[in-house]
Amino acid sequence: MSLLSLTMKDAQRCKVIAEVQEGYLKVREAAEILGLSHRQVYRIKARGES
Questions:
Q1: What is the pTM of this model?
Q2: Which of 9, 12, 27, 40 is the most buried (most CB within 10 A)?
Q3: What residue numbers bound the domain in which 37 lies?
């Protein structure tokens, strides 16, 4: 078992993307929270689902 270390920024990103995948947030809302474009959030979301 290996230990994974995340920065606070990465942890926040993971939490927000998880909320999008679960349907609690919309992509545009997540983009606003993370300071990214909605297209970037779609890409991050797609990477997490694969």
A1: 0.81
A2: 27
A3: 20-50
